[in-house]
Design brief:
CATH architecture of the largest domain: Alpha-Beta Complex
Bound molecules: FE2/S2 (inorganic) cluster, fe (ii) ion
Oligomer: single chain
Radius of gyration: 23 Å
Order of helices and strands: EEEEEEEEEEEEHHEEEEEEHHHEE
Largest sheet: 7 strands, antiparallel
Number of helices: 5
CATH class of the largest domain: Alpha Beta
CATH superfamily of the largest domain: Naphthalene 1,2-dioxygenase Alpha Subunit, Chain A, domain 1
CATH topology of the largest domain: Naphthalene 1,2-dioxygenase Alpha Subunit, Chain A, domain 1
Number of domains: 2
Length: 383
Amino acid sequence: MYINFWYPAIASKDLSADQPARVQILGQRFVLFRDANGQARCLSDTCVHRGGALGKGRIRDGNVACPYHGWQFDGSGQCVQIPSMGANAKVPARAKVDAYPVAEKYGIIFAFLGDLPEAERPPLMECPEYGTEGWRANLIIFDVACSYERSIENGMDPAHNEFVHPSHGFHGKREDFAVPDIELEQQDWGCGFMQTFRSHERVARESPTRGKMRTDKDGNFQGEVRAGTWHYGPAAMLTKIHMATHNWMHQYMYECPIDDRNIRVFLVNMRNCVLESAADKQVEDRCRVIAGQDIEIVEALQPTKTPPAAIREVIVAADSVIVGYRRWLQKWTELGWRIDTRKVRRAQQEGDAVFAIPSPARRTEKNWALEAVPLVGNDSATG
Ligand code: FES
Ligand SMILES: [Fe+2]
């Protein structure tokens, strides 16, 4: 798992004004709350007094108050009140927790988990169609017991549709089946491809796009689909499906690595057809059916995480997208952004260590009570 990217933390509708929420991302805990202006805030969950869980606390005057002894932290992570010291007492400088930049967009609250200054941060994957005329959004959230790497690899895999999704492929029965040559496109924070393939998508009955596409007498889609996928950073991905000239679906998948073996997927599903709100439920159901077919596969993969080198796998041409994604992961590892999950797990199992994802303030301020999470190849990570 990597620091220095934006991650989805919670759906906007699930963060109320009067109750903090506690979430886990990258194997660490965070508290989210709304300040006095209603602005979402994200802090490290561990109270630097005696380790209380801030996410189990309450909101007091726009601050989050620890449930243990009531210390109050503002949206910048600064402790502003220590009740046991009496009113107006001076709060020690070390009484602060990491605070992370937050963006609330597309019905999701995202946090930038890392210490890069603003100008150097990889931007959040944008969804330009959101809120524009002629497009309709569905936010669909689901959990999967697999690593984000396995999930992204699956989402980008051009060879699995034929076998995993009965409505997209031919169960491997097509004699002329082969994955066309892939032209991998490199972008600023990832790679991807667009391709044309045959589909017999059954648009009969359950599909909201029924009646809008060329079908045979049995209701099977006739023709070619243009589709493509790009990953953006380690755990976000865009899939475009163009069923006909004006029948498009763009799926923005923001994955939250809860830890290195579990994800929560925030899927912003955009469509430019069947725009009626009444179709939302059908679209969601359909997305969940397709996702369920993928989940069945990815939850059973071994090893549960992507192997460190290809030596335990046999890679063929159709896997070039997977290789492209892994090269990007390698780049971010070389930049020193990969969390040393082994070290973290060992320390957490012993129960004598707690870490924080380093926040941007660590670049300019000293005096942090919690140790920054250990990073691969960076043994001198500062506390
Ligand atoms: S542990 Fe948070 S106030 Fe004491
Ligand atoms: Fe799939």
